[in-house]
Amino acid sequence: MVFLWPSLLWLLLVAPLLVLLYWWLLHRRKKTALAYSSLALVREALGPGQRLRRHIPPALFLLALIALLLAAARPLAVITLPSQDQTIMLAMDVSGSMRAADVEPDRITAAQNAAKAFIAELPRHVRVGIVAFAGSAQLAQLPTQSREDLVKAIDSFQLQRGTATGNGIMLSLATIFPDAGIDIAALGGRQAMRPKPIDEISKQDPAKPFTPVAPGSYNSAAIIMLTDGQRTTGVDPLEAAKWAADRGVRVYTVGVGTVQGETIGFEGWSMRVRLDEETLKAVAARTNAEYFHAATAADLKKVYQTLSTRLTVEKRETEISALLALAGAVLALLAAALSVWWYGRVM
Predict the structure, then answer these.
(1) Which residues are paired to 129 by β-bridges?
(2) 35 shares its domain with 107
(3) What proportions of the chain, in percent to the nearest 5, are helix, strand and coil?
(4) What total number of domains does the chain contain?
(5) How far apart are CA 235 and CA 274, in angstroms?
(6) pLDDT at 326 (0 to 100)
(7) Cis ω for the linkage preceding 178 (within 30 of 0)
């Protein structure tokens, strides 16, 4: 905890002085009290509970004073609050392997249903954008608060060949940061089936120097990437993750399907697809996010429910003077109420 006015903390020295004053008054009262024939009998009649109870109102009043003095110094604390201005980019794999049926009824349908349920549970003020990627990446829906437009975009997915996971991340970043110097045409166009160096799609203006920030420090946007296979083309996802990390954007990765893989066939060709968990975990770790594995449709829904809870709140340094002042007022009123109730006077 830090304070905007730390110089006022010197006022806390009043607290031990008040304790000494209270002890002196008690000692003085003993000296001026009437002499009883047996003071021990009086103490025994009062009992330990009664003797302790008389110190409770002054103790509460002292705590109230400390809380009010701390409030005067204007403390700041990192607390969790609902996010007020946030964009979530869903980067979803629409490669041909998503037709595999190891996740009922099939991977793409389960992913679509889970994504729509996720969107429905988000607060209305959260904007959501959708990127679909296979051999290339396309912006299926600009960030919007319209849940109807998002559902239409998800229902319009068309499966294609190739898996460009890195392109999905880069196009999501280009949507969040339009001035980041990312060539959207290179990400969305039909690309050759070969790795694409990131410098071919980045056009950073040298006149606008970029200073990296701490990974995960950007709280206004996050990316959720869902995929079921390995990258076969496009940008290296680890290089794309570095771009996201340097801009503080978390990339939560979700692996769909079985780790051991599945052989699928379509229109006369067959292929074996395997979940590249190692890369997905590395992408999440590099951006200070998390990786989730969803082997079933139920798992996928639980993943999105978890992400919905985590992404709609943020930790923020906030002044808590009002909370401490309220606590001080409550303690002072409680001290006065107990004193009147027990002794018929205010301390």
Answers:
(1) 89
(2) no
(3) 50, 20, 30
(4) 2
(5) 19
(6) 92
(7) no
